């Protein structure tokens, strides 16, 4: 049994109500009452208390058929704002959202190849904030997703040869100085894994791996529901993994094998496509052309699947996860055809029969993962909510209730 002071119980139930409103959007009093399990008078008092504190606001009315319309309540989104950023060698893609999760504006800008990257980044964030009527220092937190990983010992970005302008300094520290707000930098595929845990195929999976088979191949490893980052932040950096020559095409090209990243680079995949009579400008374009070619493109798809599977096999052999998810442009372009070919190859290479599926979240998975990560920080800071965004709602605490 657990007892507590009336103030403590009110605080716990207030947080429960806020979490329910954040999860479900605008709710009527009776809907909120049903979700958190409090009585009608207690729920009414709770809403009055939260409205007085400016934590919740009235948000229109819901029609009630023949009866009166009911007042809707929602979390006051203006309490805090965050930025979610997807940084690539070519572009920076930014979303500004309020603490309710409502995206206020989006902004995408080109990035210079090497020099002036920090200035261009700060300028892009400033423009996005301006579109939302904010200044960068009014953001509570910024999450940046990018290739590579930040070394926790010195803040430097490692394993990211495609981002040369970002090397050699404390990246999150410098961004905090420039933006005058809290900033964290996270591996892009790690953020995809987070998004899959929140809204994808891994909502009920504790141990899984996301593989991003493309230029600068990456992986995210989740063990017991938590991201595995490694001592230097390099867990999942499989781009340099050596792949034996069985993964190379049965042609006169690429017979010596290479690293996982070399075999799945745009240049290498386009070279493989040409060996099969297909011309394309990039990897996902080659995959689309192969699928459109029907049987004529099947051999190319089989050779590409062999390359992917041979790298994935090393991951499966070490981790034996519950699930492998393929994400990114090439995986989505190949669809179930490529997924099934990779799965068939994988069964020939490793003993564990790990299911292999396409990631469910498409579109902007890195930025979406950054958004959820930033919201988790903001909500913990402002409301004291647990950072585990997938934790189930547990209801109110009343005096003497067991936990």
Automatic annotation (TrEMBL):
Record-given protein name: ROK family protein
Q: What is the originating organism of this protein? A: Lentzea miocenica
Q: Which PANTHER family match?
A: BIFUNCTIONAL UDP-N-ACETYLGLUCOSAMINE 2-EPIMERASE_N-ACETYLMANNOSAMINE KINASE, ROK (REPRESSOR, ORF, KINASE) FAMILY
Q: What InterPro entries does the database record attribute to this sequence?
A: ATPase_NBD (IPR043129), ROK (IPR000600), WH-like_DNA-bd_sf (IPR036388), WH_DNA-bd_sf (IPR036390)
Pfam families, A to Z = ROK (PF00480)
Top-level taxon: Bacteria
Family statement drawn from the similarity comment of this UniProt entry:
Belongs to the ROK (NagC/XylR) family.
Gene3D superfamilies noted in UniProt = 3.30.420.40, Winged helix-like DNA-binding domain superfamily/Winged helix DNA-binding domain
């Amino acid at each position: 049994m657990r007892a507590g002071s009336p103030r403590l119980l009110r605080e716990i139930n207030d947080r429960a109500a806020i979490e329910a409103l954040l999860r479900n959007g605008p709710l009527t009093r009776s809907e909120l009452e049903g979700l958190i399990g409090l009585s009608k008078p207690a729920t009414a008092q709770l809403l009055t208390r939260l409205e007085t504190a400016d934590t919740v606001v009235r948000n229109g009315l819901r029609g009630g058929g023949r009866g009166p319309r009911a007042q809707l309540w929602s979390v006051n989104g203006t309490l805090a704002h965050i930025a979610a950023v997807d940084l690539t060698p070519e572009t920076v893609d930014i979303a500004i959202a309020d603490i309710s999760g409502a995206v206020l504006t989006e902004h995408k800008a080109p990035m210079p190849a090497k020099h002036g990257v920090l200035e261009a980044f700060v300028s892009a964030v400033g423009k996005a904030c301006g579109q939302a009527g904010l200044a960068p220092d009014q953001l509570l937190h910024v999450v940046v997703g990018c290739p590579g990983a930040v070394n926790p010992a010195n803040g430097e970005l490692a394993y990211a040869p495609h981002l040369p302008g970002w090397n050699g300094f404390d990246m999150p520290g410098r961004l905090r100085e420039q933006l005058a707000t809290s900033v964290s930098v996270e591996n892009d595929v790690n953020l995809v894994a987070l998004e899959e845990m929140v809204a994808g195929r891994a909502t009920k999976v504790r141990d899984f791996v996301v593989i991003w088979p493309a230029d600068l191949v990456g992986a995210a490893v989740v063990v017991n529901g938590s991201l595995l980052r490694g001592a230097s932040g390099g867990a999942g950096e499989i781009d340099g993994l050596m792949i034996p020559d069985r993964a190379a095409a049965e042609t006169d090209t690429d017979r010596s094998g290479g690293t996982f990243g070399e075999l799945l680079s745009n240049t290498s995949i386009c070279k493989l496509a040409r060996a099969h009579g297909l011309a394309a400008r990039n990897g996902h374009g080659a995959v689309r052309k192969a699928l459109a070619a029907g049987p004529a493109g099947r051999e190319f798809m089989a050779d590409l699947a062999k390359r992917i599977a041979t790298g994935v096999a090393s991951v499966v052999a070490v981790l034996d996860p519950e699930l492998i998810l393929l994400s990114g442009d090439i995986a989505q372009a190949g669809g179930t055809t490529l997924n099934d070919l990779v799965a068939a190859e994988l069964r020939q290479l490793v003993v564990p029969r790990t299911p292999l599926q396409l990631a469910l979240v498409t579109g902007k998975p890195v930025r979406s993962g950054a958004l959820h990560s930033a919201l988790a920080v903001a909500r913990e800071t402002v409301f004291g909510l647990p950072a585990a965004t997938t934790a189930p709602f547990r209801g109110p605490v009343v005096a003497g209730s067991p936990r």
